[in-house]
Amino acid sequence: MEPLTNIDIRKLPWPHIVAPNFLPKDLFENINSAIPNKEQTSTEENCIKYNMMYQTDPAFLDVLEMLADPQLISALYDQFDITPPPRAKMQSCRLVHAEPGFGLNAHTDLKDKPCINLQIYLSENEKYETVRVHNLQVGSTMTTEVPCQPNLMWAFVTSENTWHTLPITKTKRVSLLCKYGE
């Protein structure tokens, strides 16, 4: 596996990486046809989150193996030019099924200590919807967008400045959301 090839390193409004065609084609096709195990799910309005650690379908297991690979984790930290914590690992991975009408207000994903967030979009996006990446410092209007396109991965190190929003979706959006840290 050659982790993180063909990536776009974006510095503004804060460092994040974007990689189209992130999963190998066979893994991407297989995971899109797999049926998730509903064990250990959480729900919120218009959204179901399946805990990937409880999936048994081989397609999910193959993708989990790739995403938990120490070589990939090391490459993620290298892209952000930071030293990984001594016991860096995948902390969580969720398969997120968001129905039309789901959205997220401005948030940073920083709960307690910094980690790397990685999201891979799996579903088609006929409406060309995006995640908006903001700099909310006083006086700044800096905004960029990450397209929610099939097999596109984006990642960032959470901090008090990593503000982003998900405008209310018009189509179903399926993605994998992983967190890496100690």
Q: Explain this structure to me?
A:
This protein has 182 residues and is α+β, with helices and mostly antiparallel strands. Helices cover 16% and strands 35% of the residues. The chain has three helices and twelve strands, in the order E-E-H-E-E-H-H-E-E-E-E-E-E-E-E. The chain has an eight-stranded antiparallel β-sheet, covered by helices on one side. A four-stranded antiparallel β-sheet has the order 6-11-8-9, with no helix packed on it. Strand 3 and strand 4 (47-51) form a beta hairpin. The protein is globular. It starts with 7 loop residues before the first strand and ends with a strand. The mean pLDDT is 84.
What is the structure about, briefly put?
This protein is α+β, with helices and mostly antiparallel strands. Helices cover 16% and strands 35% of the residues.
Report mean pLDDT, rounded to a whole number: 84
Shape: globular
Class of secondary structure makeup? alpha+beta
- Percent of residues in helices comes to 10-25%
- The tally of strands reads 12
Percent strand equals 35-45%
Ends apart, CA distance between termini: 23 Å
List the total number of helices. Answer: 3
H/E series:
EEHEEHHEEEEEEEE
